[in-house]
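Input chain follows. Return structure tokens only.
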Amino acid sequence: MAQTKTCYPTCNSFRCAKNSALYRRDSVWCRETDEPCNVAKCNYSICTKRRLLPGGICGETVKRKTVEKDLDDDFLGESIKLKGKALRKLGDQDFF
């Protein structure tokens, strides 16, 4: 899945919110506009798997990018000074 693919109206997960999609032999027509169904430009196109991205791109063909973060860098910072009851319970220590 190197390339992203656009959603097409003959997909099993595609639905028209206005029920205007008319399935013919070789294509899908919109009853509202009397033109072939265009998923990218239609406001009523819905994916039942909730994978339709803006621009009519199928979310199942998009590969996620993950970034690893070093958690130790986030926790290193100023030390916490304790006072009162917490200091008596834990002792005279600095916590990071």
